[in-house]
Design goal:
By secondary structure, the protein is of the alpha+beta class. The protein contains three helices and three strands; from the N terminus they run βααββα. A hairpin with a 2-residue loop joins β2 and β3.
Length: about 70
């Protein structure tokens, strides 16, 4: 039997996978840095791959030109 990882995860799982606090996740949501799905007034779900794409785009490191 195959085990399938859930596509949508909760805030605690997301913070664990990203090694950041749940407060950081809250801040990113408030600033619209990461995508989320609002399920209830204070309940959100996250697509991990979409969150990673947003983080990579937002926090992309520019290469430094060396002389």
């Amino acid at each position: 039997m195959n085990t399938i990882e859930p596509t949508l995860i909760k805030k605690k799982e997301l913070s664990k996978r990203l090694s950041v606090s749940t407060r950081t996740i809250d801040n990113w949501v408030a600033k619209r840095t990461i995508p989320f799905i609002r399920v209830g007034p204070r309940f959100y779900l996250y697509d991990f791959e979409a969150v990673m794409a947003a983080i990579r785009k937002h926090y992309e490191v520019e290469p430094v030109a060396r002389s």
